[in-house]
Amino acid sequence: MAISRTNKLCLLLLSGVGLLMTGCTDLTAKVTGTVYLDDKPVNITSSQRGMVVFRPTKGGATCTGLIGESGNYSVSTGSESALVPGDYLVSVQVLESVPPKGGDDAPSGKPITPALYADPLTSGLSFVVKGGANEYDIKLDSSAGPTVIAPPEPEVDEPEVDELEVEPAVDGPAVDGPESKPTPPDETEPTAKPTEEDQPESANSAESEGDSSEP
Questions:
Q1: How deeply is 138 buried, as exposed, middle or buried, from its count of CB atoms within 10 A (0-12, 13-18, 19+)?
Q2: Strand, coil or helix: what is 63?
Q3: What is the chain's Cα-based Rg?
Q4: HEC string of 117-166?
Q5: In a 3-state reduction of DSSP, which class is residue 96?
Q6: Beta strand extents in 8-57 (DSSP E only)
Q7: What is residue 76's three-state secondary structure?
C-alpha cells in the first residue's frame, strides 16, 4: 500500500511533535524569586526593563525571566515556564529606556545595575536547580562596580628606538692626557718702598759733598 504525500507530511509532523514532547519531559523544575538592589526590591517602572538569565554550566538551553514591578521574576525555557534541573550561572540586568536624541536614532538603554551582574561569568551568581519548585532571591549591590564598563584603549605602536652602541671597557692602565698646569692666581704683591740703605751710593755721596761746601 503506497503512502500518499499528504500522509508522509503528517507522519513527519507527528514525529516532530513527539521529539518536542520527549524534550519537554526534562522540564521538571520551576524557579521564582525576587531581585534586590541594596537590600530593597528592584522597582521596575514603565520606562525600565529587567531580565534574569539562567545559563546551564554543562550546556543546554538558556532560561530567562522578566523582572516585574516589585522585583519578582519567574524563569522560563522558551514558551515553557519551567527548566531542567542542574547547575546554573545567573546574570541580571536592569535598563532604563532613553529617548532618541534625533528623529532617526533608535532608543537606547541606560544601565541601572552594575555591569558585572550582566555577565554570568563575572556576576558571581549561581544556583543549583532541583526538581519541583525552587525559590531564589537575588541580591545585588550598587557599589559592586560601574554600570558601564569602558572599552579598552587601543594599543599605540611606539616607534622603535635604536640602542646606542657602547664600546666595551678595555682592561689596563688608564692613559692620562697631557697634564695641564694650574694657572697661578692673578695676585699683585705690594711693592716695598726703598729705604736709605737701598738707595744708590751716588745719591749718598752727592748729599755728603753738598754738606762739605756749606760754611
A1: buried
A2: strand
A3: 51
A4: HHCCCCCCEEEEECCEEEECCEEECHHHCCCCCCCCCCCCCCCCCCCCCC
A5: strand
A6: 29-37, 40-41, 48-56
A7: strand
Residue 140 phi/psi, 5-degree rounding, is -110, 155
> What's the pLDDT score for residue 92?
97
Tally of helices (H runs) and strands (E runs) in the chain: 2, 10
| pLDDT reported for residue 166 | 59
Give Cα 52 distance to the centre of its chain. 26
Position of cell 529617548? 99
Residue 15: phi, psi to the nearest 5?
Answer: -65, -40
Name residues of the chain where pLDDT drops below 50. 1-23, 204, 206, 208, 210, 212-215
Q: Residue written as cell 558571581?
A: 124
CB atoms within 10 A of CB 30: 18
Q: How far is CA 25 from CA 28, 54, 78, 82, 115, in A?
A: 7, 19, 14, 10, 35
